[in-house]
Design a protein that fits this description.
By secondary structure, this protein is an alpha+beta fold. Helices cover about 50% and strands about 15% of the residues. It contains 9 helices and 4 strands. A hairpin with a 4-residue loop joins strand 2 (about 50-55) and strand 3.
């Protein structure tokens, strides 16, 4: 199965509109609350970023987030788990270990990591919406985008890590990695 890029962007955009969010930083906890999802922060092993638990019989869900992680990571984790909630209804429990580079193996060639790719793209679309980015970059030059301080400032405005912002700008074609 291919990553459903258009569907993901549309779903994230609809959530933003439904919550009347028109500028960064996106309030991911407000979105979770809107969806009836409880967000709970707990101190746990560094390996664990977060989880999504659905109780289908009671129509409830909880997103658990590692309280030890930096705020930018916690925000991305909430957005990532919201992605699983919105995109992968078949999962009752989803646990995310800390992001690790996956080497191609039998599982990856079968596409078993597609759900993770989709949840990551959803988090990026939700936290750094393309329309917000376009607006913020409308008057910037190519030189500005090569300035690490500018990317750091932009990342701070969106409440994401410098790395997440750099990847997002590359994905949208504003910078080259």
């Amino acid at each position: 199965m291919a990553v459903r890029r258009k569907h993901i962007r549309t779903t994230a955009s609809q959530l933003l509109r439904s919550n009347r969010i028109e500028s960064a930083p996106v309030e991911v906890e407000k979105i979770a609350e809107y969806l009836g999802i409880k967000v709970q922060y707990e101190y746990t092993d560094d390996e664990l970023s977060g989880f999504l638990l659905r109780d289908l019989s009671r129509n409830k869900a909880i997103i658990g987030v590692n309280a030890k992680h930096p705020d930018t990571r916690k925000r991305f984790t909430v957005a990532h788990e919201l992605g699983h909630f919105m995109l992968h209804e078949h999962e009752n429990l989803h646990i995310d270990k800390r992001f690790m580079i996956q080497l191609r193996d039998e599982k990856s060639s079968k596409g078993e990591f597609e759900d993770e790719k989709e949840a990551n793209l959803f988090a990026a679309e939700l936290l750094m919406p393309v329309d917000f980015i376009k607006s913020d970059l409308a008057e910037k030059s190519e030189f500005d985008l090569e300035d690490e301080e500018f990317i750091k400032e932009l990342a701070g405005r969106y409440g994401v890590s410098n790395q997440a912002m750099t990847f997002r700008l590359a994905y949208l074609g504003y910078v080259q990695l």
